[in-house]
Structures are given as C-alpha cells and as structure tokens.
Amino acid sequence: MASDYYTGLAVKIMIYALFALSLQLLVGGTGLVSLGHAAFFGISAYTVTLLSPESGAGNFFVLLPCAIACAMIYAAVTGILCLRTKGVYFIMVTLAFAQMAYYIFHDTKLGGGTDGIYMYFRPEWRIGDTVLLDVSKPYAFYLFTLACLLLVWGFLAMLMRSRFGAALTGIRANEQRMRAAGYSTLGYKLVAYILAGGLGGIAGVLYAAKDGFVNPELLAWEQSGLVLLMVILGGSGRLWGAIVGAVALTLLQEAFQSQALMGDLATHWHLPFGLAIIALVALLPKGLAGLPETWRALRNRRSADPRAAARS
Q1: Which one, 99, 235, 269, 302, has the greatest CB density within 10 A?
Q2: Where are the transmembrane segments (predicted)?
Q3: Distance CA 42, CA 210 (A)
Q4: Of 220, 218, 240, which Cα lies nearest the Cα of 230?
Q5: How far apart, in whole angstroms, are the C-alpha atoms of residue 78 and residue 80?
C-alpha cells in the first residue's frame, strides 16, 4: 500500500509539473501572466472522459488528440480576444473566460454538474486488438507520465532555443521594440498561447486517466492560481523552475495535510500552507531555481565586506 501511495504521489507531481511547464511557456517565455490556464486543463480532462466508452477501455490514439485539439481550439478562440489586452486586463480576461468554461460544466448536464463524471475504464494505447501499453497498471502509468513530462520538457527546451523562442524572449523583454523591428507580435503570442493550451491539455488527459473522475473544480480559478504559484515559486526565469515549483508545492500540500506531521492542525492546513508560500516567495524572489544564484551573491557580498565575514 505504501508503494502504491508513493507511486500515485509521484504521478501527481509529474502531472502538475507538466501543467506548470505549459504555463511557463506563457509566463517565463512570453511574459504573459494568465489566471485562466485551468480552462485548458479541465476541458481536455472532460473531453477524454466524455469520449471514453462506458464499456471497455478507450484508445489513447483517438482520445488524446481529440482532447488536445479541444483545448487548443478553445485557446485559439479565446486567445484572439485575450491577447488584445495587456497587463492586469489580460489577467482578468483570461480569468473571465476560464470561469465561463467552468460554469458551462458546472451548470449543465454536459459535465454532470457539481457531481462531475466518471471514467469507468482507463484508456489504452492499442492498435486494433493489440494492446501496446496498459496504463491501468500503476507502474505502467507512472512510466507513461514520466515519458510525457520528459517529451514536453524537451520540446519546450528546443522551442525556446529556436528562432521562434528567441522572438518570444524579445517580446517578453520589449514588445514595442519587436514590433518596430517588423515582428507580428500578436501572431507570435497567439501561437504560444495555443501551444500552452495544448500542453496543458496533455496534463488534463493524464489527470483524468489517473483518477478516473473529473469535476468542474478542475477549471476553477483556484486551479489556475495553484499552477501559477508553482511557476512563481520555482522561478519563472528558468524552464526547469516550473518542475521544481510543482514538486515543492505538491509536497508542501501533502505535508500540511498529513495528520502524522501536523496533528490537529492538518484539518486547517490552508493557513500554515498559505503562510509558508508567502514566506518562500518573500525570501526567494528568484524562486527555488534561483537559490544557487542567491547563495553565490550572498557569499560574494560577505567576502567583499570584512565586517560581515568577521561576524560569520
């Protein structure tokens, strides 16, 4: 039982790491802070669940592209409107569109209302009757999730090193100068927004396949805030910071909810969890990924100041 718990926890961390990586493309790569990223996560999760047959396992070769396509279509439609705004207005518009998607699933029979809907059989990778990978087995699903995380991380690493990634970096640094240089910044941002939606959709599919259950809370603003915290806590300036932030935040949640570690305080875990996040963000302005750089700067400052060195 303990091994199953740790395997499930590792899968959960990897899914959220993948989700955080998709938002990292917007926040760290393009300078677009979105508070509606959960919409893509939830839409793809609902899509794969709704399309899964009630008897027998669905086929990932069909379900995964459909779910990602739905998330990307929603990103394309909403992105055209969202990206015409900037700053806090962009944040609020993305939040508004995410809440709109939330209430579609929350208030209609499509998503089962507040009760959500169940996926009775996990999808399989199969060709005809030949099963290539059965993800109903915990270890197989763990390996499959790990492979998805590594592929997405590799894709984003190559993307940010390409000319397209360099253009996104330029837009983040100075969009007005990029426009003056002849770049269609709206087009670049829209493509990045759609790609981020699709990558967030992959995380949504994995989440639905992991739990076999989806509900409207997957699209709620709290979910968007959680993944944004992961990016900020990890360090938005580095791609791997999103993974570090997802690991740290998920483990913090597990620790503060643990009765063995927190005792009776575990029933009110949100308070110490929130205080811990505030402290970490305040003490680590560059995130956990920037911790080595912060330590080096502190050490150099102490070595340059004889009085500080004497006190230490």
Answers
A1: 235
A2: 15-40, 60-81, 88-105, 139-159, 180-207, 227-252, 273-291
A3: 14
A4: 240
A5: 6
pTM score above 0.85: yes
Alpha helical stretches, state H, the chain: 2-30, 38-51, 60-82, 87-106, 138-161, 163-180, 185-211, 221-234, 239-256, 259-262, 270-283, 291-304, 306-311
Domain boundaries, the chain: 2-221
User: Tens digits of per-residue pLDDT, 101-125?
Assistant: 999 999 888 888 888 898 887 888 8
Q: Tell me which residue has tokens 């791997």.
A: 240
Separation between Cα atoms, residue 108 and residue 137, nearest integer Å:
33
Q: Compute the C-alpha angle 229/232/237, nearest 5°.
A: 155
**Displacement of CA 300 from its chain's centroid (Å):** 35
Whether residue 43 contacts residue 177, with contact meaning beta carbons closer than 8 Å, is answered with no
- C-alpha–C-alpha distance, residues 260 and 222, integer Å: 26
